[in-house]
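Q: Cobalt-precorrin-3B C(17)-methyltransferase, please. Structure only.
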Amino acid sequence: MLSVIGIGPGSQAMMTMEAIEALQAAEIVVGYKTYTHLVKAFTGDKQVIKTGMCREIERCQAAIELAQAGHNVALISSGDAGIYGMAGLVLELVSKQKLDVEVRL
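A: Structure for Cobalt-precorrin-3B C(17)-methyltransferase:
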């Protein structure tokens, strides 16, 4: 499963409980390196895949491939994942590639 998670405006106190629970349940976390540091308290010793700026497609594709391989993956983005976040790109890639991946928003 691939959970696309919005981490809010940057403060852990402003994250939803659903986002925190999804991060804690994930085996692997994928995200922009700055955002991965913001959620470190919830990722523990999980595998975290970090990329730099302007690598959104690469992040999404990596998360999709890991989910296809059977991993529970959390892809993080700032704010609301569905608005200016990664959800649209993930859904577009899954659709274009005709993949059978469970995506949770």
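A: Brief note, in case it's useful. The CA atoms of residues 18 and 73 lie 14 Å apart.
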